[in-house]
C-alpha cells in the first residue's frame, strides 16, 4: 500500500490531479447546508477540492491541514481565483487554532479516518477529541459535515473493514445522519487510470483496473452530517 503521509507531503500535485478526476461536491453540501455568506472551516483541506468551491460564496473560509505542502496548493488555487476571504493554517484535528463559536459550517473530507486506523492507539479517544474540537468552534445552529470513503473499485458501498467501527460510532454514538453515493474517478485513458490507481491505492487495485478496463474507476463515498442546536 502506498505511503499516504509521503504523498501528502511530497507528491501533492499528483494527488491533486487524481482527485480532480472526481465530480464536484458543492451541490451535495448545499443540500445539507446552504453555505452562501457563511464562515466556513475546511478541516483536512488537502489541496483545496472543497475550499476553492466554498470560498467563492462564503463570507470566509479557513483551510486547515496537517500538511503544509497540501495547503500551498490550496493557497495557490485561491490566489489564482482572485479570492481574499481565506486563510490556510497547518493544524491537528484534535487541537484547532480557532476561537469558540467562530464558524457556521465545518467540513472535514477524507481525513478524520486517519485518526481511526487500526494502527492508531486509542482511536476512539482521538475521534472523540477531534469531534469535540469541531463542535467547540461551531456556532449554535452550525453544521458539521464529514466525508469518507465507502470503497474504491466497487460499485456498491463496501468500506474497508478497519473503518467500520468508526463509521458505526458516528451514527450510533454521536447521532450523525448518513448517506452513501457514487464518486467515481473518470480518467482520460486506461493508462492514466492504472497509473493513478497504483499511485494512491496500490498494485492490487491497479491490476483490477486493467483487468476490468476501468477508464472510470468506481468509488463509493459516504457523507455524515450533524446540525448543532440553535441558540436560545
Please give a structural write-up.
- The protein is of the alpha/beta class.
- It has one domain (4-184): 3-Layer(aba) Sandwich (Rossmann fold), CATH 3.40.50.150.
- The protein contains 9 helices and 9 strands.
- A 7-stranded mixed beta sheet has the order 3-2-1-4-5-9-6. Strands 7-8 form a two-stranded antiparallel sheet.
- Helix 5 (68-80) links the parallel strand 2 (60-65) and strand 3 (86-90).
- Helix 8 (190-201) runs antiparallel to helix 9 (203-212).
- The mean pLDDT is 96.
What's the number of domains? 1
Helix content: 25-40%
Q: Mean of the pLDDT scores?
A: 96
CATH architecture: 3-Layer(aba) Sandwich
Percent of sequence in beta strands? 15-25%
Shape estimate:
globular
Low-confidence sequence ranges: none
The neighbouring-strand order within the major sheet is 3-2-1-4-5-9-6
* CATH level-4 homologous superfamily: Vaccinia Virus protein VP39
Distance from N terminus to C terminus (CA atoms, Å) equals: 49 Å
* Secondary-structure element pattern, one letter each: HHHEHEHEEHEHEEHHEE
- Decide which structural class fits the backbone: alpha/beta
Count of DSSP H/I helices: 9
Q: How many β-strand runs?
A: 9
Characteristics:
single chain; 232 residues; alpha/beta; Rossmann fold; 7-stranded mixed sheet; two-stranded antiparallel ribbon; 9 helices; 37% helix; 25% strand; globular
Summarize the structure.
With 232 residues, the protein is an alpha/beta fold. The protein contains nine helices and nine strands. It has helices spanning 4-10, 12-19, 26-32, 51-55, 68-80, 123-137, 164-172, 190-201, 203-212, and strands at residues 39-43, 60-65, 86-90, 103-109, 138-152, 177-182, 185-186, 216-217, 219-227.
Amino acid at each position: 500500500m502506498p505511503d499516504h503521509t509521503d504523498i501528502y507531503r511530497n507528491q501533492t500535485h499528483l494527488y491533486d490531479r487524481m482527485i480532480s478526476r472526481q465530480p464536484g461536491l458543492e451541490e451535495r453540501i448545499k443540500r445539507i447546508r446552504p453555505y452562501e455568506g457563511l464562515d466556513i472551516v475546511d478541516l483536512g483541506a488537502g489541496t483545496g477540492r472543497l475550499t476553492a468551491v466554498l470560498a467563492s460564496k462564503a463570507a470566509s473560509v479557513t483551510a486547515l491541514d496537517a500538511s503544509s505542502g497540501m495547503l500551498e496548493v490550496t493557497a495557490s488555487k485561491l490566489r489564482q481565483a482572485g479570492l481574499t476571504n481565506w486563510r490556510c493554517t497547518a493544524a491537528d484535528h484534535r487541537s484547532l487554532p480557532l476561537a469558540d463559536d467562530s464558524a457556521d459550517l465545518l467540513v472535514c473530507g477524507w481525513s478524520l479516518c486517519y485518526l481511526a486506523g487500526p494502527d492508531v492507539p486509542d482511536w476512539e479517544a482521538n475521534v472523540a477529541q477531534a469531534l469535540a474540537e469541531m463542535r467547540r468552534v461551531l456556532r449554535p445552529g452550525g453544521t458539521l459535515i464529514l466525508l469518507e470513503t465507502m470503497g474504491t473499485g466497487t460499485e456498491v458501498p463496501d468500506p474497508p473493514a478497519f473503518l467500520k467501527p468508526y463509521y458505526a460510532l458516528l451514527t450510533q454514538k454521536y447521532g450523525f445522519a448518513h448517506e452513501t453515493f457514487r464518486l467515481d474517478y473518470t480518467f482520460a485513458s486506461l493508462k492514466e487510470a492504472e497509473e493513478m490507481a497504483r499511485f494512491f491505492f496500490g498494485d492490487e487495485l491497479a491490476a483490477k483496473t486493467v483487468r476490468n478496463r476501468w477508464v472510470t474507476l468506481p468509488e463509493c463515498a459516504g457523507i455524515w452530517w450533524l446540525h448543532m442546536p440553535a441558540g436560545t
